[in-house]
Amino acid sequence: MSPAVFSHGDLRLYLLSLLAEAPQHGYGIIQALTDRTGGTYTPSAGTIYPRLAKLEEEGLVTKTVDGRTTIYAITDAGRAELSAREGDLAGIEQGLADSVRLIANEVRQSVQDAMRSLRADLATAAHEEQRAAKSRPRFDGMSGERATSREHLQRADASINAFRAQLRTDLRTHVARGGSLPASVVTELEHAMDEAARAVTRALSALPTDKQ
């Protein structure tokens, strides 16, 4: 389970600090939080708007409606609380940096664990295939073994296409919902796919062929 980005009550103070920089609408606040955390934390509207409403009730924030957009701004009382809790805010920002670092490390570790598991599975499959191949007779022409290999190739193609489609859908859905896609995440994805491709190539090179 990933560590919480904000401890209890910290998000409230952090929202005041964001509004102290400039008035914002709700989506802008969500995007600012996503950017400040490198894309590791994207709060939902159900998380942000109730807190903004509470800050408004306490007189720390005001809102103005411009057409279909609601803009939130910090009040003098809000700035006074922010100033009085300057030390707390510094602690929140340090804790935020630590939490983001932990989350990024967890993501990186998950990718590495998945790749190790994939490489181990491929190595085991290659070893078992080598053992099975030694006990099978070789045939010339379009043998039953060749037909089976073609069926397996079709299954592999279908699996790759399904994986590609699912990944594209997940990425597009995330971005469409307002989530960010940091370069670090894309780099990790590229690295993981490159490692997977190399693992498959190594496994295939270990399998017997008709020319061996």
From TrEMBL:
Cited Pfam families: PadR (PF03551)
CDD domains: HTH_ARSR
Protein name listed in UniProt: Helix-turn-helix transcriptional regulator
Domain Transcription regulator PadR N-terminal: 15-83
Organism: Microbacterium commune
Disordered: annotated span: 125-145
PANTHER family, sorted: TRANSCRIPTIONAL REGULATOR YQJI (PTHR43252:SF7)
